[in-house]
Amino acid sequence: METSSGMFDNVNSSVDKAANYLDITSGLLEQIKQCNGIYRMSFPVLDDDGEVSVIEAYRAEHSFHQTPTKGGIRFSPTVNEDEVMALAALMTYKCAIVEVPFGGAKGAVKIDPHSISDTYRERITRRYTTELNRKGFIGPAVDVPAPDYGTGEQEMSWIADTYMTLNPGQVDGHACVTGKPLSLHGIDGRAGATGLGVAIGITEAVSFKADMDPLDLTAGVDGKRIIIQGLGKVGYHAALSLQNAGALIVGIAEIDTGLYDEKGIDVQALLKHRNENGSILGFQGETIADPMSLLEYDCDVLVPAALENQITAAIAEKLTCKIIGEAANGPTLPEADPILHKKGIFVIPDILANSGGVCISYLEWVQNNMGYYWSFDEVASKMETNIVKGLKDMHELSKKHNIDNRKAAMVLAVGRVLEAFDHKGIWP
């Protein structure tokens, strides 16, 4: 049976490995690895039957080397403190690698958003926001949440409205949260930003001929055969963007089933089918009863866009893909990385591949602070600049130290966090 340490320990293990390539004292290294603050809360909410339900929730602020802190809020019945701390840490490094001036944070509410009414979900969201506000864990200059697994524009709207009601008169109040709809000071392109960022990262990565030659692949995304795990917001927009760029989406894995078609899957048509039928079952192509097995099918690029811990050592041994673009947070267990490296699989790590969301979130926050709004093309261009630069910087470090991309990404990210701490100093 395959075992692993906690997710937060896994993140810090990567930090320790990165530190070997940096001039860093043990004391400062320990500071960088700590989660600076975590708020564990339980609060009562009346359910739809008028009964009291006690809701468990979290908000973790990992690093104050840059402020405000930034990170999404997920609604999930399985969430725990370790997961929230790990995701907050990943946000710190994700922001650093694409040079977005935020520290990392993450929030979670332990509920199943799909099994409760909209009104009940609203009461929970507003009470959660009230708790964050009460303890100073939200604010445009303090900590700025965003959507994550199980949340979206509607929840962010409730958060913004609650915050501004509790803090009247703040000109920049809308900047307390990002991922809002356009009608409430959101940003054009936010819904598909993370998926678009994944596509940008993959497109840039496959443009390096020197890296594609050992994989026996031509440079460029055109004609690349891609399998996507998860057709949520991230997976769908990544698949659609890659398809529009000329790639062939040959496989889609959902939680209940998988679909494979070597001739290519029409992503938009598949989404329409799922919306009408509640599942991808019945769409043209080969139905795969065990969706996890689809990860092992022949393809050029595998895009895990579901949840964490999907690629274990056992699965890594069976992979036939040549490139992995990690759209999800933490989809690969640490014990799988040496196997992927040995097999020569080119990995675009999560802290870079899925950084499009935080890039766009930063731009939304900037817009809300200055009261000026950009077009989608301007937003997409600014995001692309950050992601491409991060990828090139990671690539350069990988070649310099002869290390894999994940290690290089962490060296780059931890180095930038270290630089900020060095300049700030220790006070008092």
Description of the molecule:
This protein has 428 residues and is α/β, with parallel strands linked by helices. The protein folds into two domains: 34-172, Leucine Dehydrogenase, chain A, domain 1 (Rossmann fold, 3-Layer(aba) Sandwich); 193-353, Rossmann fold. Helix content is 43%, strand content 15%. The chain has a seven-stranded mixed beta sheet with strand order 9-8-7-6-10-11-12.
Level-1 CATH class name of the largest domain: Alpha Beta
Strand order of the largest sheet: 9-8-7-6-10-11-12
What's the SSE pattern?
A: HHEEEHEHEHHHEHEEHEEHEHEHHHH
Q: What's the number of domains?
A: 2
What structural class results from the helix and strand content? Answer: alpha/beta
CATH architecture of the largest domain: 3-Layer(aba) Sandwich
How much of the residues is beta strand, in percent? 15-25%
Measured as a percent range, the helix fraction is: 40-55%
Mean of pLDDT = 93
CATH superfamily of the largest domain: NAD(P)-binding Rossmann-like Domain
From the alpha carbons, calculate the radius of gyration and give it in angstroms.
21 Å
Biggest sheet record: 7 strands, mixed
Uncertain stretches: none
Distance linking N and C termini:
49 Å
